Amino acid sequence: MDDPVALLAAQYFEQVDPPNLTIPDGPTLVTPAIQNAIYENMFNEDTAWPLPPASYQTRALKVIIARLEEAICDPEEDEILDSLLETWTSLLSTPRSSALEQAQKLTYIKYTAPSSAATSESTESRTIITSENRSLILALGTTGFRTWEAALHLGTFLSTTNIGQSLVAGKRALELGAGTGFLSFLCAKHLGTESILVTDRDPTLLEQIDDCIGKNGLEKTKIRTGIWEWGSPLQVPSFSHEDESGTERGPASFDIALGADLIYDVDLVPLLVSTIRDLFDIYSLNEFVISATVRNEDTFRTFLDVCGKFSPPARLPLTFQRCFSSLLVL
């Protein structure tokens, strides 16, 4: 992104920790046009959506104002825009939620998907909205209330490389263990999938994904959700094998399946591999792409060993991306 405000706003809506925000240099920051762009694109509720929680806005604006104060050399020539100061005052007077409430509350996160140099799509049109809570690592028996690094890495691979784009463009796709649905939204909204089925075992997560389908301007003729308990049959409608009453007449079929951060619990490995096998045997799957943060080498090795027990080993043509933990701002 060449526009310094666009980059800052993209990080802001992804709720990057405020000290790590990429703020324009001092001479650029103090110009009225840049300050106005920051207000309109990041803090004006009439022109910016979805706004981060007030607590995050307060922290981000505090950093921006501190940088502005450092950059002002001549108070008679340079000043902080009234709209930013008024927003700061308003945020300071906003009642604070308790730490417990903040830790449990979901919020809309707006990601900006990266693109290859050949993509002409504008930055704004490549946004994806999820509902999540960055502070929730494990809640209600699931880790799916936040988008993990492996999903961000896989999303970058799919959207910025010719190989990645060819994997999903025009394909019937399925996502296992979707969590926030980030990858499915990316594929359905920007990468040209014919259809995508978003699956997870947790009904609460699927409710959040269903809500965000509308927030992303997508239609359920292209993206649907369904519960899939690993090791059990898939019990959701397909996109094309239904009669007029909506009753499924035959098994769904998929060209490609995606999964990110699925290999985190050694006890779940046999169920995961059994489910992958069902995808190939029952649902005519051609390819499965996994992005895995290798937190435990033994768990990852167990997954590879279980996959290798299938005969022949080529039965599972998996494409692995071993994505190690890192902060990736899309």
CATH top level label of the largest domain: Alpha Beta
Under CATH, the topology of the largest domain can be stated as: Rossmann fold
Structural class: alpha/beta
Question: How are the strands of the largest sheet arranged?
Answer: 5-4-3-6-7-8
Q: What average pLDDT do the residues reach?
A: 84
Distance between the first and last residues' Cα: 11 Å
Contiguous uncertain segments of 5+ residues: 243-250, 311-317, 320-330
* Range of helix content: 25-40%
Overall geometry: elongated
Listing every helix as H and every strand as E from the N terminus to the C terminus, the arrangement reads HHHHHHEEHHEHEHEEHEHE
Any idea what the radius of gyration is?
A: 22 Å
Strand percentage: 5-15%
Spell out the CATH superfamily of the largest domain. Answer: Vaccinia Virus protein VP39
The number of strands is: 8
Question: Strand count, sense and closure of the main sheet?
Answer: 6 strands, parallel
Protein name: Methyltransferase-domain-containing protein
GO molecular function, one term: methyltransferase activity
Organism: Aspergillus keveii
Keywords: Methyltransferase, Transferase
What does this 3D model show about the protein?
Pfam families: Methyltransf_16. GO terms for molecular function: methyltransferase activity. The protein is an alpha/beta fold. Helix 1 runs parallel beside helix 3 (32-43), helix 7 (149-160) packs across helix 8 and helix 7 (149-160) packs parallel to helix 9. It folds into 2 domains: 4-96; 106-322, Vaccinia Virus protein VP39 (Rossmann fold, 3-Layer(aba) Sandwich), CATH 3.40.50.150. The chain has 12 helices and 8 strands. The radius of gyration is 22 Å and the shape is elongated. The chain has helices at residues 4-13, 26-29, 32-43, 54-71, 82-92, 99-104, 149-160, 162-168, 182-190, 203-215, 269-282, 297-308; strands at 107-112, 127-132, 172-176, 195-200, 223-227, 256-260, 287-292, 318-322. Helix 12 links the parallel strand 7 (287-292) and strand 8. The strands form 2 sheets. The chain has a 6-stranded parallel β-sheet with strand order 5-4-3-6-7-8, sandwiched between helices. It has a two-stranded antiparallel ribbon with strand order 1-2. The chain starts with a helix and ends in an 8-residue tail after the last strand. The longest helix has 18 residues, at 54-71.
